[in-house]
Every structure is written in structure tokens, then in C-alpha cells.
Amino acid sequence: MFGNMGARKLWRNYLPRLKYYNPNVEIIVNRTREINKNNRAPVTIYFTDRDPAVVETQYRQAGDVCKEILDITKATPLPLSHEDARTAAEYEELVASRIAREKAKEERRRIKREEKERERLGGVAPA
After folding, report:
1. Per-residue pLDDT at 29
2. What is the pLDDT, as a whole number, of residue 106?
3. Closest listed residue to residue 11, CA positions, set 30, 33, 35
4. What is the DSSP string of 25-79?
């Protein structure tokens, strides 16, 4: 793995929103299928009044890269609307319940493995 998942997720998840909420900002993406020598996928931000800034994305989460871009550009995220906040809360509940179900499922598997091992050993608990 080359460690550029953060760049791909940034491109796929964050860039469309950035473009939508900033129609007056020119955003150019140069994607390539070629793998460069260092496997880097930098984000370069060009300004009209200062030198460009480069944000490294390799081995980083897309959210962390986006936060760094916001810091560099001194941009402020839009506040969530009431409806968006409710949707985000529902999503968090969904994720939490899914995680709880997976933990319970894994616990049932563990207990079943221990029971099989106990049967295999003739009723003696494994050490």
C-alpha cells in the first residue's frame, strides 16, 4: 500500500464540498495513474498574495489534511444547519449501534470457540 488513501478520500469526499461552497475559487486537480518515485500525493495551494503552500497527504487521514488546508487558507467551516446536525447525530447513533452489534457478534464467536475447545479437551477449561 502506498499510503495515499487520504489524498483519494480528500479528492472524493471533501473536494466536491469545497467546490460547491466556494464557486469563486479556482480548484484544479491533476491526478495521474503513474506512481512517482516517492509515492507522494501533495496538495499545492496557490495564493495571489503569497508563495504557494504544500500539504503532504501521504499516510494521513483526509480529515487531517482538510483541517490543515483550512488552517493554511484561514478558511472557516460553515456551521451545520439544524437538519444537518440532526442527520449527523443519527449517523453517529447508527455507527455506534453497528459497532456494538459487531462487538457482541465477536463475543459470541469467542464464547463458541471456547466451548468447542472445552469439548475437544473433554470438559477441561483451556489454560
Report:
1. 76
2. 96
3. 30
4. S-------SSPPTT----EEE--SSS--EEE--TT--HHHHHHHHHHHHT--PPP
